[in-house]
């Protein structure tokens, strides 16, 4: 199976439909009891899709809705599936529609009149992240600042900052600055005021813990003009699902002018997971900062 451990959950809806052509002799036999069997079979198929189809993941389904529509000789079954899930639900919906048609055929199998099953189709496929990369602003510039006494002294190698840079490159963001500075509040604040003027993104890594030298939040909070608590919450929530100490991080998010400022953990895993939690969808903020309307 594909690794989806880094994906986030979003609201997903998939709707599939299939049309069956019935012989005139069968139309009077299609009654409520028959649809009940069809509906039961389709629901079971949706619920068990992960055990039948490769790379389909178990989902806590919020809704399975099966409807029928008979027009002349054409009977259409529509299966709608909803869940908060990491992947789309197309396979579940399509399997449900297919089994609905098969159940109908099986119910009428002793009849001489024919049944023709038409093409299976997806009517709707929606997840919260679908198409987001397409609508993100382009030509974004970012500065990455590593706050660490030991790294600035040459005693350790920076890995967290480089992990952040790799994630930014995946979103086609230009890296304008990459610096390593000591855990000094004055230097951290000066860099923020300087680099926020020429960058869309300013990302700090390090200094967000609880040791006496962890001063990045204290340096940034007085100069951040607008905090964005939702970003901070998303980072900690994502991290807490993966390791129990993420709740101790004091990650900060906010704006200075039109620059988004983030203060992320200094560990490599902490920085990587923080980026995974909010990228690329956090880039939607730049549409808003540029005065565009929410979709």
From TrEMBL:
Q: What is this protein called?
A: Bifunctional molybdenum cofactor biosynthesis protein MoaC/MoaB
| Pathway assignment | Cofactor biosynthesis; molybdopterin biosynthesis
Membrane-spanning parts: none
**Matching SMART domains:** MoCF_biosynth
Q: Report the InterPro entries cross-referenced here.
A: MoaB/Mog-like_dom_sf (IPR036425), MoaB/Mog_dom (IPR001453), MoaC_sf (IPR036522), Mopterin_CF_biosynth-C_dom (IPR002820), MPT_Adenylyltrnsfr/MoaC-Rel (IPR051920)
**Keywords linked to the UniProt accession:** Molybdenum cofactor biosynthesis
**Species name for this entry?**
Joostella atrarenae
| All copies of domain MoaB/Mog, residue ranges | 143-285
At the top level, the lineage of the source is Bacteria
Q: What does this protein do?
A: Catalyzes the conversion of (8S)-3',8-cyclo-7,8-dihydroguanosine 5'-triphosphate to cyclic pyranopterin monophosphate (cPMP).
């Amino acid at each position: 199976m594909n690794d989806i451990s880094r994906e986030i959950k979003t609201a997903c809806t998939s709707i599939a439909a299939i049309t069956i052509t019935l012989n005139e002799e069968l139309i009077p036999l299609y009654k409520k009891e028959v649809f009940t069997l069809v509906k039961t079979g389709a629901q079971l198929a949706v619920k068990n899709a992960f055990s039948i189809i490769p790379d389909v993941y178990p989902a806590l389904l919020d809704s399975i809705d099966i409807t029928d529509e008979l027009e002349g000789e054409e009977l259409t079954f529509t299966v709608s599936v909803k869940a908060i899930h990491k992947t789309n639900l197309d396979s579940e919906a399509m399997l449900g529609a297919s089994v609905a048609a098969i159940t109908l055929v099986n119910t009428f199998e002793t009849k001489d009149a024919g049944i023709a099953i038409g093409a299976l189709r997806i009517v709707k496929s929606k997840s919260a992240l679908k198409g987001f990369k397409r609508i993100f602003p382009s030509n974004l510039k970012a500065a990455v600042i590593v706050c660490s006494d030991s790294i600035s002294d040459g005693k350790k190698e920076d890995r967290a900052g480089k992990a952040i840079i790799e994630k930014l490159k995946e979103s086609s963001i230009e890296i304008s600055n990459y610096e390593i500075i000591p855990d000094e509040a004055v230097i951290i604040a000066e860099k923020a005021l300087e680099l926020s003027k020429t960058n869309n993104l300013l990302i700090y890594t390090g200094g967000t813990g609880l040791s006496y030298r962890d001063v990045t939040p204290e340096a940034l909070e007085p100069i951040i003009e607008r905090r964005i608590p939702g970003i901070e919450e998303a980072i900690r929530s994502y991290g807490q699902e993966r390791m129990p100490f993420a709740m101790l991080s004091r990650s900060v998010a906010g704006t200075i002018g039109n620059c988004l400022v983030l203060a992320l953990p200094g560990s490599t895993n902490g920085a990587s997971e923080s980026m995974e939690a909010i990228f690329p969808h956090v880039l939607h903020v730049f549409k808003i900062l540029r005065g565009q309307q929410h979709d």
